[in-house]
């Protein structure tokens, strides 16, 4: 092969390689990446985030949207991260959605956060589990005991602190105010390092199931005059019940307070990304409902209305109007 031919072939090969590299770089540049803040790995938020990402990553969208859903401390952390632009979406409690919009504690340092609702999921209920030998039968019995009050930055912690305020309690009201993660609670209860755990969660919950299966324990009601006063002034909570039959020994419904889990974003998020995320979930809603027992009774008409204390994001609203739901 003469010199000119070799040079020509080399030039063609080099040009082809450069074109391929540029094309690959162009595709990568066009890909959109989104992050969804979830919660602890044993919680419903984490399952929800992983499930949403699975559907979105499989969606036939060009340019592609790549979704990641890391474990986080929960609702409060997710809202702060949304405000800072660290996450694109986050699962949050409906009460926190309301507080963040108003710039109320625990979001007073951030000021009003321009949250937008995407859809809601399961009810989230304040759940208090106590050792059977603790002598605790109601909320008043927690005083002076060893109680897990929740991880700082979690929705569970914030909700229980509202209950503490309603009861006139501080951390000093307990002999121990622990700050364990959900995955650590059942073992601490079983090892007799705690008398009670508190957790805002959708039911059935793996963490609650573990506590009631492996430990002689029971769920106590969250009710009373102080709770009634809290419900009267905090309209983002409602009186709810943990259904009978979900856990060992729970033969009757147990009263408590709660709200909804909400997938939220901010007003800055690309409407097309929100639209494609919503479409990927609702086009596969029957499959989504099978991914966790807490999702089994979800209905589209409730998901786009109930618990949305922030305005709908325009990308979500576009999909719901196309479906004739709004």
From TrEMBL:
Keywords recorded for this protein, A-Z: Signal
Manganese recorded as keyword: no
Keyword Secreted (UniProt): no
InterPro entries found in the cross-reference section: TRAP_TAXI
Signal peptide range: 1-29
Domain of life: Bacteria
PANTHER family, per the entry: SLL1037 PROTEIN
Protein name: Immunogenic protein
């Amino acid at each position: 092969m003469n010199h000119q031919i070799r040079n020509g072939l080399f030039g063609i090969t080099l040009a082809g390689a450069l074109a391929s590299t540029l094309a690959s770089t162009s595709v990568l540049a066009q890909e959109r990446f989104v992050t969804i803040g979830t919660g602890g790995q044993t919680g419903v938020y984490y399952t929800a985030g992983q499930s949403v990402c699975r559907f979105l990553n499989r969606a036939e969208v060009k340019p592609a949207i790549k979704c990641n859903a890391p474990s986080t401390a929960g609702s409060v952390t997710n809202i702060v991260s949304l405000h800072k632009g660290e996450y694109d979406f986050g699962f949050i409690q409906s009460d926190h959605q309301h507080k963040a919009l108003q710039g109320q504690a625990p979001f007073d340092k951030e000021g009003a956060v321009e949250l937008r609702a995407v859809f809601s999921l399961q009810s989230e209920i304040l759940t208090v589990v106590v050792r059977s030998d603790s002598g605790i039968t109601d909320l008043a019995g927690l005083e002076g005991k060893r109680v897990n009050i929740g991880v700082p930055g979690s929705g569970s912690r914030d909700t229980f602190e509202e209950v503490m305020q309603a009861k006139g309690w501080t951390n000093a009201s307990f002999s121990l105010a622990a700050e364990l993660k959900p995955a650590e609670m059942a073992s601490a209860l079983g090892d007799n390092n705690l008398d009670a755990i508190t957790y805002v969660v959708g039911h059935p919950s793996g963490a609650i199931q573990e506590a009631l299966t492996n430990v002689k324990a029971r769920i106590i009601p969250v009710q009373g005059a102080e709770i009634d006063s809290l419900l009267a002034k905090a309209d983002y909570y409602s009186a709810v019940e943990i259904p009978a039959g979900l856990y060992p020994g729970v033969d009757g419904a147990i009263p408590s307070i709660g709200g909804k889990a909400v997938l939220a974003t901010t007003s800055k998020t690309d409407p097309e990304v929100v639209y494609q995320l919503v479409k990927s979930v609702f086009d596969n809603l029957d499959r989504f409902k099978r991914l966790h027992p807490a999702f089994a009774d979800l209905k589209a008409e409730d998901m786009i209305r109930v618990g949305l204390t922030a305005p709908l994001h325009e990308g979500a609203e576009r999909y719901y109007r196309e479906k004739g739901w709004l």
